[in-house]
Structure prediction request, 202 residues.
Amino acid sequence: MNKPFAPSCERNKDAILKILKQYITSDDHRLLEVGSGSGQHAVHFAPEFKDLQWVTSDVKSNHDGIKQWLKSARIPNIHGPLDFELGVDEFPRQIFNLVFTANTFHILSWKQDKSLMKMFGNRLREGSQVFIYGPFNYDGKYTSKSNEDFDMWLKDQDSKSAIRNFEDVNSCMVKNGFKLTADHEMPANNRMLVYTRLEFVK
Prediction:
């Protein structure tokens, strides 16, 4: 069986890595990747952060492909994949101070997105960072014609999928105890949203 291959991962991996290197330090010890997909991102990123344990996760149907990538790469600081399907599985019980997720928010339903962000707020401690990569609309408008076409395609595949509005995502993250650290413009009309968990106040 051939390893799964996502062309988009190949195209965006260097641009994403450049951003991650601005934030991840030797003080960061454990990262959860939500929606590892093919496993390509983990294999490309983890060797760049020797002090970091990179933990993959996804729905069960994607595990075989991730395992193939991890097995062939033999990178000691990559782990998983863990079972993580929103609405089915709890947030992984290990302690993470970083979360990375790429191209998931527009695939998941908005209800699932909100559930995931609530989990971030409940499980991540003060100072933890969340990296959310993908396309977003601003002021309810597409940032490009290609994103508009992509959104139409998404909705044809699943009526609950859609490019999310940045303002909605940001509002939900703030509600769950985060502040927006940065909103990076990325190639191909994508963004990298970086959030930091604030002090928990009862």
Summary: The beta strands are 30-34, 53-58, 78-83, 98-102, 129-134, 136-137, 164-165, 178-186, 190-197.
